[in-house]
Amino acid sequence: MLTVVLSGLRTRWASFLGGFLALALGVGLLVTMGLGLSATFHAPERSPQRFASSPVVVQGQDRLTLDVRRGPDTVPVSQRLDRPQPVDKELLRELRARWTLSTAGGPSSGGPDAVGLDAPAAEVRALVGDRARVLTGDERRNADPDPERDAQALVGLNALLGTTGGVTAFVSVFVVASTFAFAVALRRREFGLLRTAGATPGQVRRMLLAEATALGVLASAAGCALGAAGAPLLARALVDGGLAPEWFAVGDAVWPFHLAFWTGLTVAVAGAVAASRRAGKVGPTAALREADVDTDVLPLGRAVLGTGLLLTGLGLLVWTCVTEPSELLKRKTYTTLPMLLIGGVALLSPLLVRPVARLLRLRGAVGTLVRENSAASVRRTAAVAAPVLVTVALAGTLFGSAASVTQTRGVEAREQTTAQYVVSGQDLRPVAGAPGGAVVSPTASTSLFVRDGAEAVVKYGARAVADPAAFAELARLPVVAGDLRDLDDRSIVVNEEFERRRVGETVEIWRADGSGPVRLRVVAVLALGTGDNGPYVTRANAPGAPLDRIDARGGGAATARALEASGGTVRTADAWAASAHPASSPQTRLGMILVLGIALVYTVIGLANTLLMATSVRGGELASLRLAGATRAQILRVVTGEAALATAIGTLLGLGVTAAVLGTLGAGLASLSAPVALVLPWATAGAAAAVCAAVAVAASALPAWRLTR
Q: Does the model's pTM come out above 0.85?
């Protein structure tokens, strides 16, 4: 048996080349992603920068502790991440009386947020007490600007690498299993001859599994070497693309190599199991008779698995849309759920190939042959269409969902104001000298803290209104109950996410500086929308919050000139909405390109391998066409036309999956009372389909040209 296996591997190396490359690439990518994930788990902390020369730092109090059922819950408080609370002025006088202080260039509006000093930490703590925080050692980095920046970047990087690793595993399993299944289908005559020569079904199955094991070991070993070389390159690309901190680098973890190697071997063996069972079940005569005709193209196991994945994917989409529509707007949801639909449709593609091919009306003898051959050779057509489906569907769902969510947020932001001009910036100055008839509404970013039942403390990003009357006149918020004109210093506007959200109810909140509790009456309730419809309070409940936005309407060009004195960027409302909600950030776009690039590389490998194998065994068929009078050019048009038709079928199925996902997203947005602004990424999906078509045509034309010489 071992001799037969080794001889088969040497003789059919071209047939195994595609599976080897796909598996090696998958293992290499898993190693790369695993090393990156390991680095995010054990990444070193950034050393203190702002107060690197001060052994002790006194920082303004930025923690709020409230009692909840499970014990005290502590959350950070600040107006913004780059503006902590200032150190108490009385405390500053006491500190200056004993030591020399340094602010190290921190914000000074309202007082420094932190000061550094060279003094014994115990004495400083005794003097400060609970009026501020005393930081020493590595804790001093909490006084740096945006201290959570690196942690947030690592969380995002962790999610990106995890998602990419999941897509890699999904696509590699699909491509390797499809390659093995199609290769076995092409070898049915060989298996029939082996059965005629006395081979038992068990021997045929063991031969295929042994081939898969040998291929899995070699490809996994090559993939581990490839991943070790590629991980540092990925780390540098992530740093250059702004997805990781500057100091990010892969470590020397060992578990990614073990995980990737054994995963690759398992994928290879698992991909051959179903095919080996199918090959071992047929008798000698049946195998020989079935070698030239595609029958029973959808085994029961594949049909059950495909139906299960399809129904599960559709069910989860509908369930999420009905129960938690806001989850559809999250990248994790629109990245993972479509994979179930893609897998289900791809597994059931043999059922869809023949009806779609029969519907086409292609003219001429060549067109008739293309249509009939595609409909008759279901396995070959489905094997080509399935990887195209995966790539086009991933391109459509990933890019389409992300672009739709971003565009919806931009449209929502524009629809929520009737202003002609919007000023944005930090620490804006109030507008003076606005012409008569102009309505000006300054607002500020702040935070509110609310107990979520008795379990935890929830932080809400909120807006603080300086002029409630002007705000009510300019705002066009999705109010579901109440009236914005009733907002005052003793009231609040909430959204449907709040635990208490009925007009007239009282909400207990803590302000951004940690002061409270303050009891405010609900005067209006807003629809949740895309998540940016946060609560609104007046400036009285946002002490120290700096202005960062001014809406204005009326007064013409004179109003625009008056707004320029605020110190911010003056734009029309349309330009402001476009700049505040761009199509996508460079980091997001780079992450999606990484995921789509992996899928496209796998698709190219799968298409080339499948068509090279499929066309290479059609010598007798093509010779019969020549004897029937077909010219060499006509035969090449038939073969390439079949490849193009299979690619078109896969593209249509991928667009169908995209339409289902984006349609569900649109229904979720409508249920959230958000504008529905769906975007179908025609350029991205078209480019992916064009690459697939070019590879398919080339991979079928080359062996056909050789066979018809």
A: no
